[in-house]
UniProtKB/TrEMBL annotation:
Signal peptide: none annotated. GO terms for cellular component: cytosol. This is Glycosyltransferase family 9 protein. Gene3D superfamilies: Glycogen Phosphorylase B. PANTHER family: TETRAACYLDISACCHARIDE 4'-KINASE-RELATED.
Length: 355
């Protein structure tokens, strides 16, 4: 099944590459431009904002957090609507001042639901639409929805969907920070950058209570380390690697270790039968749980970036992807590239799990 999924992803990339030349023509045909204005609105003129982000990957959605927080800080009194792909993604952005969520449900099967959403959004124009990541889907939806300003990146074949586009000319940045330049480029100031999710008191208490259940007098002085074995495509590491990695930690670290394996629909069974496990379909509760561990080990995948957004002490295993673009933002998390030979004790010291 994983092999089939990887082949489908490669085909989808090929399809998108061939179709991109037609995007500009499409946007000219479908764009709603009745309310578009040539000048960028001032901060005081902005009362209704739509942020568009359609993607099904957890990590990619979490990378929207800094931009969303910036928009809320810059426009504290504006009505802020956030368009996501699916309802399940809204929980990631709870408690961050979003006034309204809407969901594109982008797929061929749900095309009529998407069109109904566009119809509803056309009833009252927005002052500003931000499409910070400028995917093909985001560009098409932005073109269809009325707004006085439509702001995004300067991207070949997609600029027709917007009223204002800005090129990025600086050095390569993290995917979560790469779109922030759009705000000062449009004349709006940046506030201090924050990439974190926001827990409520009940969610904070959940993590503490769940960890208390597995700790005892015998494990009170042990390091509590969680790990997740899942990943997509070539980033997936074999069970033999994980088994060897756990052995290395136990051999090199002087303190006893209490392991917790995070399970998921893709990883339903633990690596070792004598290890505690945790799973939750609620991503916020999973993040709350991870805030209570001494360290969390994971490949570059959704749960790693979820933990990073909760300021968990993360050890990210980067066997394929670029740490500049997809690395960890929280301090003192560590991105490990030499996954076979890294010093496990030193890494635990770097994240603050060991003195």
């Amino acid at each position: 099944m994983r092999v089939l999924k990887n082949h489908l992803r490669q085909f989808d990339k090929y399809r998108k590459a061939k179709m991109c030349r037609l995007e500009g023509v499409l946007h000219r045909l479908i764009r709603h431009k009745s309310y578009c204005e040539p000048n960028i609105l001032s901060k005081d003129q902005v009362e209704r904002i739509l942020i568009v982000r359609n993607n099904k990957r957890i990590g990619n959605m979490l990378f929207l957090l800094p931009f969303l927080r910036q928009v809320r800080d810059v426009f504290p009194d504006a009505h802020l609507t956030l368009m996501l792909r699916d309802e399940s993604q809204a929980e990631l952005f709870a408690n961050l001042g979003v006034d309204e969520f809407c969901f594109s449900r982008l797929s061929f099967r749900n095309i009529f639901k998407t069109l109904r959403l566009v119809r509803d959004l056309r009833q009252q124009p927005f002052d500003v639409i931000f499409a910070p990541n400028d995917s093909a889907e985001d560009a098409a939806l932005t073109a269809l929805i009325p707004a006085r300003n439509k702001i995004s990146r300067d991207t070949l074949n997609r600029n027709e969907a917007y009223t204002h586009v800005f090129p990025y000319q600086g050095e390569k940045k993290h995917a979560a920070l790469a779109s922030l330049y759009l705000l000062p480029a449009a004349g709006f100031p940046l506030a201090p950058i924050d990439h974190s999710i926001e827990f409520c008191a009940k969610e904070k208490a959940f993590g503490e209570q769940e960890v208390d259940k597995i700790q005892s007098d015998q494990t009170e002085n042990a390091l509590l380390i969680a790990y997740f074995r899942g990943a997509r495509g070539a980033k997936l590491l074999p069970d033999s690697y994980w088994d060897s990695l756990l052995d290395r930690f136990e051999q090199k670290v002087d303190k006893p270790i209490q392991w917790v394996e995070v399970l998921s629909p893709d990883i339903p069974e633990p690596l070792r039968s004598d290890i505690d496990t945790f799973s939750s379909p609620n991503l916020r509760l999973l993040a709350s749980y991870l805030t209570q561990v001494d360290a969390f080990i994971c490949c570059d995948t959704g749960p790693l970036h979820l933990a990073d957004s909760a300021n968990v002490k993360c050890i990210g295993l980067y066997n394929r992807t670029c740490t500049t673009t997809f690395g960890l933002l929280s301090d003192p998390s560590v991105c490990v590239k030499n996954i076979e030979t890294f010093d496990v004790k030193q890494t635990l010291q770097q994240v603050g799990a060991l003195a």
